Amino acid sequence: MPGVRSFPDRAAMGAAAAADIAEELRSRLSAQGAVRVIFAAAPSQSDMLDRLVAAPGVDWTRVTAFHMDEYIGLAADDPARFANWLDRAIFTRLPFAEVHRIDPEADPATYAKLLAEAPIDVVCLGIGQNGHLAFNDPPVADLDDPEDVKIVELDRTCRQQQVDDGAFPTFADVPTHAVTLTIPRLLNATRLFCVVPGAAKRQAVEQALHAPISAADPATALRTHPDVTLYLDAEADPRG
């Protein structure tokens, strides 16, 4: 079962998650030459990322960054592209050793090869309103997926969430397909930090913690990982 930490608001949640992630990075960097981290791109991560950028004592020049999903069909300079969102949120704000951005026009196997070059130490992720992890929506999620990176069709709930989050003006503007890291690829990391604020996520959190583990609710797969912590604000915490 994931460890669960709950906070009165998003700011406190983000600060605590960032502090824990920074401590994990400092610890790993003291014991190994480099660290590899996968980041989620979503407004739910903004508070944590802002605090992580400001965290002291992390040698970012020894950290390689990846991200976990990307829309297909948006212009390279579209601000809604996840690589561009993460550039604004963290990638261009820190001196990373390398940043590997998903090219949605490339063969997904190319990105899979980059991920497989060495172990992934940390994943910073969230949970979608439909329980998705990255863009592994219930209709396409596979908890035993043989692939590491693949092209998927986004379900309606997922696409509507992008509108609700303010990333797109209308449902029709949201791309129908995306590239995503698969659930086994994400869970292959050593440590997972899952940041989930907001009342709209409360049911998804409840399901992730208590529903049967299955592809019908992809976030339930977090319960199969030995080292994952869930960070909630009061609105997202179904226990409060």
TrEMBL record:
Key words of the record: Carbohydrate metabolism
Pfam families on file: Glucosamine_iso
Keyword Cell cycle assigned: no
Glucosamine/galactosamine-6-phosphate isomerase domain segment(s): 8-224
Tree of life domain: Bacteria
Stored SUPFAM superfamilies: NagB/RpiA/CoA transferase-like
Residues that span the membrane, as ranges: none
InterPro entries to which the protein is assigned, alphabetical: Glc/Gal-6P_isomerase, Glucosamine6P_isomerase, NagB/RpiA_transferase-like
Name of the protein in question: Glucosamine-6-phosphate deaminase
Organism encoding this protein: Pseudonocardia zijingensis
